[in-house]
């Protein structure tokens, strides 16, 4: 078990400076004053002892050892067997000294020529007394300097402490070592020092060093070999604490034009299916396309009032793909063999003029929307390619695909199934590659399926998953609300990747890139984007004889965020943090942030499930749930318990249903898992028990 915590360390302040020589002795009293002082021998010894006790050991006078009870009320005094001993002079025999302790640092204080003595354990009467608790070994990175500590008697019974100690050393089920990365907040933050140019990096692992180190080092804290003793340059982490680097200071910033929004609407024959709605008290029937038309028209009117400079385009598909024109530009139709050639479709999208601002095209766009009618097949694959290629002109643009069925033309066909009811491998590869292409161009794709249909969202949802978009199933009455949420979630950065660096004694869990360094490609980042990482101690034998971090020690963790701003500049933000290591499970459980563990459990389980690893996803959720239940045994607030009960009520049916999936997901299950995979702390998952 390993957990990094922020426990206070019992260490001297780093800026303390010890004197090299003792101060001059106090002036001697005058002879007249000495004659006036008449004390008994016992009083003189007591007075001398108190004077000596107020001085460090190397400044005390050479006199026999003495022990004096602390003056005060009898209820606050230790017993006769617990008197406080003072150091013996060097020339006197230390009768009750402890044997040599190899774990204790016997150092000579600065400014003295005498050896440090272990505290005496015998009183003036020679009776044995209880020894004080042993001092911990001095950390290797501390300077050799004397410390003066007051050790009070332990009032806790040994039986009680031993039972609690054994309980606190029990291994934990699950992994409490979770890092939450709020990408939207880190990228949006302005009050961070910005440095122009590339940072100073380690030549092996790429860790970013503090700007004070001008030369590139060969071995750093994060990649040093565990089989060799650490060098002076690698024993302490010299990582950059918190800085933003402008990697392309010489590049000219791009013009901050408004992004492009493209509606990609299904107008196939199945969109003519009607549903009953109430208009006042009179029931009427509307087709699916009519619901879509109404929702899009409302959004266009709203955007023309609030964002008149936004550019909005329209693409429709049935057995052909139509790029709807505006003003003097006529519409373009792609059909037949043209729908099979991917390169031809891209060229057609690039050559078509980009839509103008809504302030100029609103009326024309409304006429095009109202003139739509249902017929033909579903050329969803070619339409998606054309829409993404057109949106790639401006990074940060959005594509919203609205459909009610499976793609059934040659390119990206999802109706033709192969072995085990899976779509053709070529179609799976097509949507995966198309999603990667959209992410590389800074385009966010969201998929909106109409409720009660089968669209193979497990495959089509890859477009949204690769680009940080949304996969939504909505009833015809909820289309406007879903359109609004997708549009309002703006992209603030593109081409984002996150790298986590750990010391060689640790490793990242659950990532494809094993070891102490892992990089995750995020792509597009919105203001609410959050991701999580799991890490832990490296398993024995995974890389030589690697030992786990020592409890009470400290380890450093570095996070690197690479992204591209809307003006085209490439940026790098680096954060390095130091955390203390503990093996005390009670400390871990009492300080655990349940909301972060819940988010990580949801994201990790969903990431495994969408890759077809359903049993691993269920196991991941169950182990983290047991960890949270252990944490609830400690003093938790009513709010924590309420949040956990709601989360458990939502997640239990999801984890139980994972065992029913063997080859593919239903549309409802796919939409839910993609939403979990890209969820954040501010989103509460909807309770969906039928999937």
From TrEMBL:
Record domain VWFA: where: 260-487
One GO CC term on file: endoplasmic reticulum exit site
Entry-linked Pfam families: Sec23_trunk (PF04811)
Residue spans of biased composition, Pro residues class: 10-30
Entry-linked InterPro entries: Sec23/24_trunk_dom, SEC23_SEC24_subfamily, VWF_A, vWFA_dom_sf
PANTHER family, per database record: SEC24-RELATED PROTEIN (PTHR13803), TYPE A VON WILLEBRAND FACTOR DOMAIN-CONTAINING PROTEIN (PTHR13803:SF36)
Biased composition range(s): Basic and acidic residues: 39-50
UniProt region (Disordered), positions on chain: 1-136
GO biological process: COPII-coated vesicle cargo loading; intracellular protein transport
A single GO molecular function term of this UniProt record: SNARE binding
Residue stretches of biased makeup (Polar residues): 119-130
Protein name, UniProt field: VWFA domain-containing protein
